[in-house]
Amino acid sequence: MGTKVRNLRTTYTKESLVNAFFNLATKKDFEKITVADLTEGAQVNRATFYAHFNDKYDLLNYIMGNSASNAIAKRTTGSRKYKPTCFSCL
């Protein structure tokens, strides 16, 4: 399988998980959201979730990093990636 196909699949899967998270966050407190809830909403299996993220905190870290990167890109001429090293560092 080519790298481009893998990258598209990875991007789609992560977007599905992020969308599932935002959908669930409107209905439940973060503490009550489970990986099972996320995988059901994204229509992926648990192994797929864990292939991309360690846990729901890692997913939240990914979302926060992308949000920060997008905000920085809007305000600067160059694109910078913000990648926090840990959830508690936010």
| Number of E-state strands | 0
Coarse structural class: mainly alpha
Oligomer: single chain
Strand/helix succession: HHHH
- State the separation between the terminal residues, measured CA to CA: 36 Å
- Overall shape: globular
Q: How many individual helices?
A: 4
| Main sheet makeup | none
Poorly predicted segments: none
Provide mean pLDDT, rounded: 84
- Report strand %: under 5%
Rg, nearest Å: 14 Å
Percent range for helical residues? 55-70%
Structural notes for this entry:
- The structure is a single chain.
- The chain is mostly helical and 90 residues long.
- It is 64% helix and 0% strand.
- α1 packs across α2.
- The longest helix is centred in the N-terminal third of the chain and has 23 residues, at 3-25.
- The chain is globular, with a radius of gyration of 14 Å.
- The model has no long low-confidence stretch (mean pLDDT 84).
Summarize the structure.
With 90 residues, the chain is mainly α.
Helix-strand layout with pairing:
Elements: H1 3-25, H2 35-42, H3 46-52, H4 56-75
Helix pairs in contact: 1-2
